[in-house]
Amino acid sequence: MKTSYIKKGVINALNKGAWEKVGGIPLVARNLYLLGRSGIKEIVILIPEGPDKLPDLNRWKGDANLRLVTVKDPLDYLSSLKEDFFYLDSSFLFDERVIKKVLLCPPITVFLRNREEKKIILGSLNEDAVIIWKKDGPSKLLERANLIYLEEIDPYSEEMRGEVEPYVVEVKGKKDADIATWILIEHMQKKVMDLPAEYIDPFFENRLTRLLCNTSITPNMVTIFSLLIAILIAFLFYKGHFVIGAFCTYIVEVLDGVDGKLARTRLEFSKFGEYECLIDYFYENLWYLSIGIGLKRVFQYGPAIFFSILMITCDTLDNIFYTLSSKWFGKNLDLLSQFDMKFRKIAGRRNIYSFMFIIGFSLGYYIETFIATSIWSLITAIVHFIRLIQHRRKYR
Question: For residues 351 and 308, what is the distance between their CA atoms, to the nearest angstrom?
Fold first, then answer.
């Protein structure tokens, strides 16, 4: 993978917008995090003169060396640099893909949001660039520079598993910060999801994430709360309260999306969050077992336990297939072909099962619904196994 040789970054935080909170944290902190994650080893933040107390930014610098420099004009500091450097105006919310694109380009390269813009907000610069900028103005610098426009940024996002429109948003005050926060959250919606997660859940997830951004509630708290509800649901199924249990599974479904979006929005990642898949596996299979036991207790339907075991077995096998896909191909199984992407929308998973439970249990078809979900879990596992073998032969 191609990496940048530029190791110094300069963040211009002189404008008020740089200190507005976007996604619950100062915008300058977000840009600091992105530069550190992009491999910049030394980062200087240009701050304004004044008595205002600034937030501690060290938690977002990663492994980079951070230094704050007080200046009136950014060009005063940039003129002292004799090495190539990466410049960023932190009154803008940048898509990480924009930063990575410019970082791979040699000086003098400048990013512009559109072909009419003449303001330098992001660029790979050097001493010559600063001399031109200071002496003749930004227009002359743009005439000499290699220009990159927003329209040239690849819309495909590996993290979001699909095409997500690139963005760059200027923040001048609180109103702009609110707009930028909403844009940030909306762009965190992963693609190649099942139907509920793609078309229904975002309406609730995004609003709840936005609500929690400026609170003291952490992503881990959301995960723990979700786990407690999940355990309560298992108890409801065990006691035979199938309808209310089914509707409560949707709460867990939404919260499962919120904790991830909140973590990415506030840049709060932890070891605990890395084990979320194991937590999901635990409570989802606890549900299936509890439904089987509940159906046997309430309706004296003995085979219900068999269907519980079938669902747990198929879910376990499915997880193994996904693990093998990542190991063999370096990709999620759902991303290997158009068929796999489309099958993902309806494949047997918790979200699909939840909607089947909600509809079927509400109509009073308790046993029939559970049998149907069990059979669908088996079909899903078989399809994924066949696709895994087919891809394995193809990539040999």
Answer: 17
Token pair for residue 394?
């193809």
Identify whether residues 34 and 150 lie together within a single domain: yes
How many other CB atoms are found less than 10 A from the CB of residue 245? 24
CA distance 117 to 92: 14
CA dihedral (13, 14, 15, 17) in degrees, to 10, reads 30
* Cβ atoms within 10 Å, residue 146: 13
Q: Is the dihedral of CA 263, 264, 268, 270 positive or negative?
A: positive
Same domain, 142 and 206: no
Q: What is the pTM of this model?
A: 0.91
233 and 102 part of one domain:
no
Report the CATH number that the domain containing residue 33 is assigned in CATH: 3.90.550.10
Residues 150 and 55 in one domain: yes
Residue 186: exposure state from Cβ atoms within 10 A (0-12, 13-18, ≥19):
middle
Residue matched to tokens 């004799």: 82
Looking at residue 362, what is its pLDDT?
A: 98
Distance CA 310, CA 316 (A): 10
Q: Is residue 237 part of a domain?
A: yes
Q: Is 369 helix (H, G, I), strand (E, B) or coil?
A: helix
Nearest to 90 by CA among 55, 115, 132: 55
With a cut of 70, list the residues of the chain below it in pLDDT.
1-4, 51
pLDDT at 162: 87
Buried b (16+ CB within 10 A) or exposed e, 94-123: bbbbbbbbbbebebbbbbbbeeeeeebbbb
323 and 218 together in one domain: yes
Helix, strand or coil for residue 356? helix
**Pair 247, 373 in one domain:** yes
Q: Which amino acid is at 352?
A: I
Residue 206 forms part of a structural domain? yes
* Residue 45 located in a structural domain: yes
Q: For residue 1, what pLDDT is reported?
A: 44
Structural domain of 91: 8-157
Is there a domain that residue 303 lies in? Answer: yes
Give residue 51's pLDDT. 65
